[in-house]
Structures are given as structure tokens and as C-alpha cells.
Amino acid sequence: MSVERTAYRSCPFCEATCGTAITVDGDRITGVRGDRDDPFSRGFICPKAYGLKELHADPDRLRNPMKRTPEGWREIEWKTAYDEIAARLQEIRQAHGNDSVGMYTGNPVVHDLGALLYRPVFQRALDSRSMFNSSAIDTLPKIVQTGLMFGRQFPTGVPVPDIDRTDFLLVVGANPMVSHGSLMTMPDAPGRLKAIGARGGKLVVIDPRRSETAKLADEHFFLRPGTDALLLLAMVHTLFDESLFDLGAATGLVTGFREVESAARDYAPERVAERCGIDADAIRRLTREFASSPSAACYGRLGTCVQEFGTLASWGCDLLNILTGNLDRPGGVMFTTPAAPVDAALPKGVGFEIGRWFSRVGKHPEVGGLIPSSAMAEEILTPGDGQVRAMFLLMTNPLRSAANSTQLEAAFAKLDLLVAVDFYLNETTSHADYILPTPTAAEHEHYDVGLYCLSVRNVAKWSQTAVEPAPGAPHTWEILANLGARMMGLADVPLQYIDDLVLRQYVEAALEDCRWEDLHSEEAIGKLESQIGPERIVELLLRIGPYGDGFGRNPDGLTLAKVKAEPHGIDLGPLRPRLREVINTASGRVELAPALMLGDLERLERRLSSDPAPMLLIGRRDLRSTNSFTHNLPALVKGPQRCTLHIHSGDADRIGVTAGGNARVTSRVGSVVVPVEITDDLMPGVVSLPHGWGHDADGSRLQTAGKHAGVNANILTDDRAYDTASGTAVLFGTPVDVTPASSG
Ligand code: SF4
């Protein structure tokens, strides 16, 4: 007789970390519901959480390693896969150098503790500069901006809105009602956003689209795509012009104040209003309201990042926060105090680094060791020393998520070797030579080491395994450790020995600057209760962290055992001021005016004096869609077609496209035909298409997604259009032509 049991874990489908209760019968997931006892999410989940059940049962999901052969795909043993892949990678790098092997990491890594903590281990084994990351698609401007201003490596130096206490939330280029927060870990976004108004606060949204968040807001302003930096600098200008500035907690802790005042002088609201599409009086009024509110937070996300001036726009958001005294103030923007501070295990004293080398072809500066994803195709296609000839893809589908996917597909076809770690045969992995499937989130334990660095409350939670993986199926950390060991010539060494080496590296880095100076490596290692794998590293971080037991020195402090004993999670309280301990710049102060930003203003100025493009393409987020793999889960794709072109009624009339008809959308690099939806929720001169679709590619094995194929928006995005300061490709604000079309 089977007995139903319940496992508690955070949901892995977005950054919100909602608590789920997963009911299981044998090896079958029977239900997923919100965990009412989770102190952070309080029972909230969105429809995507049900995907846990469907993903686990999906017949398309790969269970064994796959090798491409002349006869087609063939399942192979894990050991054979490790041996063959490592041998081919070794061959390539011996012939062409270490940089000829590249790696690209996708954002699902953040939901797989083993992938997150062992990716750097594998990266060290590759010892290559050809490292790309999905952060380089949509987050690099924020990483660069906060890194330069606060001197910390991502994600520990990103201030997040103290949303539960703010009196005024200004949302620029973000739609948290649907995204549920990004770089702001926030379960129950709808509840938290509505609570602002309920306690007498104000929500203002600035976006080219009247988004779901804008519909909830007290005020919404349409903004022309790519002009966020102009608007935010106009608000900074107003702060100086009308003497509204007040540094608050940052007083005495900043440098570059006069340089910012001087830089903002050129951006009077009256000068930028027409280009932005927002009236100058409205810009000034909004600035006054923001500055005079008891507390206020400016939050910018994708719309401020994946655009031509992503770094300047991100800078503008935090300038507004800092110059109005809202940095490190309850209700403003604050730094989370994570219980397992992953930065403790980073090299000390390094701070934020950029431009230690430049990409071979496009000369983009590396950022924290990463090259912008927009440079991946040219690094593969351009001959010469260091040309990338093999790629290792970790949980990613860049042929649907990266700019100019047609060019990238052509580049992947030229590789000598493509290895993908992924559980689907999708549009990208179908080009691979080997596919190594990972377990689903239900099959492994987890701790949100990364996302809890950005949460709007301080929390700790250990996510339980719901269903045991199939016998012999490795966890992602084991895949990376096994391959990494072979790359370092340790093929025949037991995994425990390899893992002990990994642990020692983490321990030594973590204890370098530990608050318990008498704590040494041998004591810490000896007292860890966990035996192997990422769990040991989390235990280490928790015990040396700000709430930790210090390996017995603070007996009431947290241990992993205590965290595990509270399966719904532990609330560690609201965000607390900690600016002084966060600042890690060479000057010891918040750098208000980094040279990179000041130098980029000339480019902004040129754009301001050039003619605007008549029609710009932006993206669109959908409640039931995050990564492209969610399109293979029936509950998340049912209902009306969602991959449609949104266009304003005035534009539709002028161009001659009709609702339900098709439009051809053409950019410099490509063209797609897509069904039309007419809506006045979009600014005239702007069209919108969601990303991650286009599931009709030959070779992929996604039965459900194939029935809801849609079109791939990244056929249109242009790898040559990028934010110069960070190298991030422009995904929002691509100039396009739209014409009527009869069919696909
Ligand atoms: S909001 Fe995000 S974390 Fe919460 S249930 Fe939905 S997808 Fe999961």
C-alpha cells in the first residue's frame, strides 16, 4: 500500500522562492500547493509552480546521457559519457589552447545548488577565458553598475527595494506583477505590491507598455524604449536644480557628488521630455514626490538593462535612491543580510573587477570573468588564436534566449564539439554532440544561496527532495565534479576525494576573513556534519554566516541542522542597515560617478541628438512562462496563443494590420511572421513580442511546445546593437519594420 507524503521546497521557476508543499506517492508527484506555513511566501504560489509535477512526469525529459551518432541519438552510460567528453575537450585544448573551450551558463543554475556551487569548480578545471553566462544577456549592466559603485561582486552588492515598508515604489522597465521580482527575491508580488497602496503608499510605473503592474499602479507613464537613462538623469538634474537632495545614511560615505551634479546639468527635463515621451512638468513633479516621500525606492529591471544604455539607466536608478537618502534606509533600498553569505567563499579583497582582459574579436571588457553573450557567435566564427571550437552549455537554451539566434545557430554548427547539460532535447541541445541530463528540482535538495542574497526579508530555508532520482542518475554537482576531475587528470580518483578538495577550497576562502579569527580549516572541516556535496558548503556558510553558530562559538546560532528542522523556512527579520560593511571600493566610499558611466554620456548625448527610429520592438513577460522549457508543460501553455505581436491601434490602422491577422516584423538581422493583437496598452511606435518561443525547430523533442510553437523573437534582436559600457545586447528597443503578411 502506498503512503502519500509531503516534501517542502522553494519553487524553482522564478526568483521569488515561494514555498511549495509537494505531495508524493511513491515516485509520483500527486500535487503541488502553496505552503501556508512558509513565513516568507505565506501560501502564495502562481500557476507555474504546478509545472513541478508536469516536468517530473514529462515523457520528453531525458533520463540518460545521449550521444549523437551517424545513426542518430544513442543513450550511453554515464562513465562512458564523462570519459569521451573529457577526452575530446582535452584534445581540443591541447591543439588550440585553453580559450578554445568555452562555457555558457543559463539562469536555471540558480535553482540547482549543486550547479551553482560546482560550476566555478568546473570553470577552474577548464581554465579558459571564453566564459559566457545568461547574466550577460539581461543583468550585466546592473552587475557593472553596482560593482563599480559599491565595489562588490554580484549578487552581494545589489540593493533591493524594502518593499514591505516603502512609502513610494517607482518601477522602471519592470513588471513584478508578472515576473514576481527579479534581483528582488519577493514571494507574493501581487500581495506585496497591493500592500503599498493599502498602507497609504504610492506605486508609480514607467514603461512603454501599460503592464499588469502599471494597471495596479497609482500612476503610469509611457516611456519611449531606450530613454530610461535620459529620464533618470533628468530626475537627478531636478534634485540638484531644486535642491531636493539629501544623502541620509550615505552622508560622508560617498564620493563623486559634484561630478554627478555636473554630469546631470545637461539633462534638464525640458530638454529630454519629448524624446522620452514624458512631459517635463510630470518629470519634475515625480522627482519632488519621490524626494519628499518618507521613504522611496526606485526599482529598474529588464527594461533598464537589455537596452542601448543599460548601465547608465541602472546608474540613474541608484543615483535617485542615494541622492534622496533612500539608500540603506528602511523603506528605501537596502542590502540583504543572507544567512549563507556566498561571497564569504569568494577571494577576499578583490572587490569588483572589470576589463582585466578584453574579448578577442569585439574587444568587450570581461566583467567578473565573463564575456558578454552577444560576443559568443563572433568568438566561435572568427578564425585566429583563441577561437572557440568547443562549447559546454550548462542548463541553457541560447538559441532561444540570446540575441541574433540565426547567427548563433550558424556558429554552433561550426563547433568541433558541443556538450549540453540539460534535461531536454531542445532547439539548442539538438545541435549538441552529447547531452547530459540533470535531475529536476523535485529530485534534489536545495538552498537558495544566490536568491537569498537579494531577498526583501532575511530568510533561510532548506528545500527537501520530493522524489528520489532514478538509481545511478547523478546530481548536477556530480556531473561537474566528474568532468572537472577528468579535465585535471584525476579520472581514477574517488569522488569523495575530489569533493574533499573542493570543500577545502571553499573553507579556506571562507575563513580568510571570518569574524571568528580563531576558527581554522581543520576545525571547521572536522565539525561539518554533512558528508559530501553542496550540502557541506551550505553548512559551512550558514555556520560562519551572520546568524551562524561559529562552529560552537555562538551556541544559539544557526546550523544546517537547525535550518533543516524548520521545513517551512526561518524568518530572520526585515532588512537592516549595513551600508558600511557592504562598501568595498578602493576609496572606501560609494562611487557616485564611476569613469565608465561618465565616459558613456557622450554616446547618450549623440543618441539624444539623432532621429528616433519610427518603430521599436520590446519584449513581454507572461505569467506562465519563464524559461523556454516551461512551454513543454501542458498546464503552462494551455489557452489562447500567447506568442503574438502587440501593436497600438493607431499603428495597426496606419500599417494595415488587423487583429487575428499576421504581420511581418523585420529587423537588420531577420524577419518573422506573427499573429497580431491590437491593444492600446502599448505606446504608439512600439511593438511587443514575448521571448523564448519558436519551438518548430528540426531535431528538438518537445512535443507539447511543438504544438504551441510561436516565433523566436531573437531572430530579430541584433548582436551588433549593445550597451557599450557592459556589452549587453539590446533586446528591448530593436528598430523594426512592420508590414501586413498573409501567412507564415
Ligand atoms: S511566483 Fe515564481 S517562485 Fe512563486 S510559484 Fe510562481 S514561479 Fe514559483
Task: Walk me through what this model shows.
With 744 residues, the chain is α/β, with parallel strands linked by helices. The chain has four domains: 57 residues, Phosphorylase Kinase, domain 1 (2-Layer Sandwich); 161 residues, Rossmann fold (3-Layer(aba) Sandwich), CATH 3.40.50; 202 residues, Dimethylsulfoxide Reductase, domain 2 (3-Layer(aba) Sandwich); 129 residues, Barwin-like endoglucanases (Beta Barrel), CATH 2.40.40.20. Helix content is 32%, strand content 18%. It contains 27 helices and 33 strands. A seven-stranded mixed β-sheet has the order 5-4-19-18-17-6-7. Strands 32-25-29-26-28-27-33 form a seven-stranded mixed β-sheet. Strand 6, helix 3 and strand 7 form a beta-alpha-beta unit. Helix 9 packs antiparallel against helix 11, helix 9 crosses helix 12 and helix 19 runs parallel beside helix 21. The chain is globular. The N and C termini lie far apart (53 Å). The mean pLDDT is 94. Iron/sulfur cluster binds next to loops.
Shape: globular
CATH homologous superfamily title of the largest domain? Dimethylsulfoxide Reductase, domain 2
**Total number of helical segments?**
27
* Major sheet: arrangement of strands: 5-4-19-18-17-6-7
What share of residues are in beta strands? 15-25%
Describe what is shown at a glance:
This protein is of the alpha/beta class and 744 residues long. It contains 27 helices and 33 strands. The chain folds into four domains: 57 residues, Phosphorylase Kinase, domain 1 (2-Layer Sandwich), CATH 3.30.200; 161 residues, 3-Layer(aba) Sandwich (Rossmann fold), CATH 3.40.50.740; 202 residues, 3-Layer(aba) Sandwich (Dimethylsulfoxide Reductase, domain 2), CATH 3.40.228; 129 residues, Barwin-like endoglucanases (Beta Barrel).
